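Input chain follows. Return C-alpha cells only.
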Amino acid sequence: MLVLTRRTNESILIGDDITVTILGVTAGGVRIGIDAPRDRRINRAEIVIAVGAENKGAVRASADATAEDVLLQAFGRLGSAD
C-alpha cells in the first residue's frame, strides 16, 4: 500500500486518466474528489463488502430453500405412498 500525505487542493494522479483531489479535511473525515473516465467504476469499499455479504446470504438462503423443497417433496411422496 502506498501512503501519501496531501493537503487541501493537492492531488494524486493514478495512471494517465484518474486524478484524486483532497477537497477538505475536518475532524469527521476527509472529502475527496475523483476525476475519472465514465467507464471506470468507483465504489465505496464498505458498500462493495456489504453487497457481497448480502449476495452470499441470498445464495445460502436459496440453497436452503431448495433443500427444504426437496425434503418436503420427499416427505410428501412418502405420505402419499401409504
